[in-house]
Amino acid sequence: MAVQCASFTTGIVVITPNALDQLTPADIQRGLQRHQAGDWGDLGEEDWKENDNALRTGLRLLSSYRSDSGVPFWIITEADRSATTLLLPDEY
User: Fold this and answer.
1) How many domains does the chain have?
2) Are 51 and 35 in contact (CB under 8 A)?
3) First CA to last CA across the chain, in angstroms?
4) Is 40 exposed, middle or buried (0-12, 13-18, 19+ CB in 10 A)?
5) Tell me: the pLDDT tens digits for 55-70?
6) Is the residue at 4 inside a domain?
7) Residue 38's closest CA among 1, 4, 79, 72?
8) Of 33, 54, 59, 78, whose Cβ has the fewest other Cβ atoms within 10 Å?
């Protein structure tokens, strides 16, 4: 997948307690950097296209990554760009 140069604000960034317990500060920082750069991580091609479209149309953005220790986590930016949440998939 080609990474495009995304341009959106994350709003307030929050993280669930479980994600905070299982992710390192480096995992969090790297995930947020990739998310805001338009690198949607471990998503299929169709989901990448949906996110690319969401950048143009102002819909919610979802990225999926793995920490250095293998823990999967998601980053979701709300459609109005007011907040971005880091969470574990089973917390959705």
Assistant:
1) 1
2) no
3) 25
4) buried
5) 999 999 999 999 999 9
6) no
7) 4
8) 33
Residue 2 has pLDDT above 50, yes or no: no
pTM for the whole structure: 0.92
Q: Which domain holds residue 40?
A: 12-91
- pLDDT, one tens digit per residue, over 21-54 is 999 999 999 999 999 999 999 999 999 999 999 9
- Of 79, 72, 50, whose CA–CA distance to 87 is shortest? 72
Whole-number Å distance between alpha carbons of 4 and 39: 7
Give which of 89, 83, 57 is closest to 71, Cα–Cα: 89
User: In this structure, is residue 3 part of a structural domain?
Assistant: no
Closest CA to 27 of 76, 67, 63: 67
